[in-house]
Design goal:
Arc Repressor Mutant, subunit A; D-Maltodextrin-Binding Protein, domain 2; 3 domains; five-stranded mixed sheet; DNA-binding
Amino acid sequence: MDKLKAMTVFVEIAESGSLTAAAEKLGRSLPAVVRLLAALEQQLQVRLFNRTTRRIALTEEGRHYLQHCQKILCDIDEVEQSLVNDQVEPSGTITLTAPVRFGEMYVNPAIVKYLKQHPQIHINLLLLDRVVNMLEEGIDLAVRIAHIGDSSVIAKPLGNIRRVICASPELLKQHGVPQRPESFRDFPCILFSGFSSGNKWYFQNHKKRISVNIKGPYKCNQVSSSVESCVSGLGFGQFLSYQVMPWVKQGRLKIILSEYEPEPLPVSIVFHHSRLMPPRVRMFVDFLNAELRQALNTG
């Protein structure tokens, strides 16, 4: 049995959610796909899928094996594509998405730099504060600030983003600096609904999670307006660190209670490795990975 071929078939079944769909994508007959899966399970001596007449679902062993198979196949693809990248000038269109503020601050400058180096490339950047279905919406890659729970995608880690509490110097002078998370129950807060419902803040103390119900005069679903209201002294705010860092550097906001910050959120470039990634996309992923890593380390 060709192990790499069997792993490729297994990954496609898992990502497609169907033996028939996997067979169609791979250009193989359904019996051939079934035989390869059966041979793989026989060799591993584990069941990778639970199968009924209507659905197919990964077993716990299957989910574990899938993660390793995806990485192995992705690594092989990267090595092969790297041999091509040095010889081919990229051309064509790349579509990617990123959170609005992060995209404006970090992704867009990287794109401008890349397009100046590769004039035959066209990039379509979608700045959206929502998780998109990449396959359905025709997106090649995404920058996401979250834990990635989707086993059908590959996440290339870039770094971590802090979740911080901040306030204007004027507000701190008026109310004082809160000493504990529970203090925010009695202080005016900016209810930014970019964090869940916006009515609850989360903290961490020695790995213990603390939730605090908050209230305030202003609630908004857009980060720019929420940050501006915080800068103006309307209330305390909880934001991702990059969203407020320009005002922190100017001294217009101060970060407080950093010892109670919840665990940082990972930043990743996400893509579907099951597609045969074109060289233009592979080259851009490598470039964007380097640019964003540097920006996060220096920002």
